[in-house]
Predict the 3D structure of the following.
Amino acid sequence: MAALGDQSEEQAMAAQPKPQNRPISNIVIVVAMQTEALPIVNRFQLTEDPDTPFPQGVPWVRYQGTYKDLNISLIWPGKDPTLGVDSVGTISSALVTYAAIQALQPDLIINAGTAGGFKAKGASIGDVFIVSDCAFHDRRIPIPVFDLYGVGLRKAFVAPNLVKELNLKVGKLSTGDSLDMTQQDESSIIANDATVKDMEGAAIAYVSDLLKVPAIFVKAVTDIIDGDKPTAEEFLQNLAAVTTALDLAVEQVINFINGKCESEL
Ligand code: ADE
């Protein structure tokens, strides 16, 4: 019997996710806020699925349609049933990503959304980044190895040809469940070497890694974290305009993906 950790090469290969050798045909786009989602829904003429594959009573919304050779579903976690605001953050995004992968078996996940950006790392309002790495900045567990689990660093699917062809900026993403930033968060974000900060990415990366579905993260900058404006004010002020940049970037990304295999991205 093979000892633990003594896998044959074949076993090790079998454990790796197999890049599909056929063109990508089924894409799930996960978007946290309605304001971010609707321009993308309209761009691809997606329609709301009245009969979603999700449990009865959850607020999760699926828009779907075909665009070129692609089957596209956009999943929005919907409004909080009690408070009526968008269900932003890591819990909702992980749940909908899990449910969407289980139900729809996508070839690829795209998480599209807005983010705060660090001007010290080259971010400006309206910039769109493709994320190379995702990590958390608010899961502090100061015990050996649990500390690394808390940070939860995962590589995103960077798609080097896509980045080159579309001339998009690439940066690291740090995720936490707050729009603002404590000093401890800031230290962790710096340790994560992040250029952009959001409230969903690393949670979606966790699920995509768990279920072995590649995930691309497209993040458009609404506010400058190391600037002098209050974050919530700057975010709300720029949200509508920046979603236009996000929507255009998602269209470019989808057009690039159409007709290509994972290995060509
Ligand atoms: N989304 C947009 N701006 C953000 C910020 N500063 N922090 C977290 N998520 C964001």
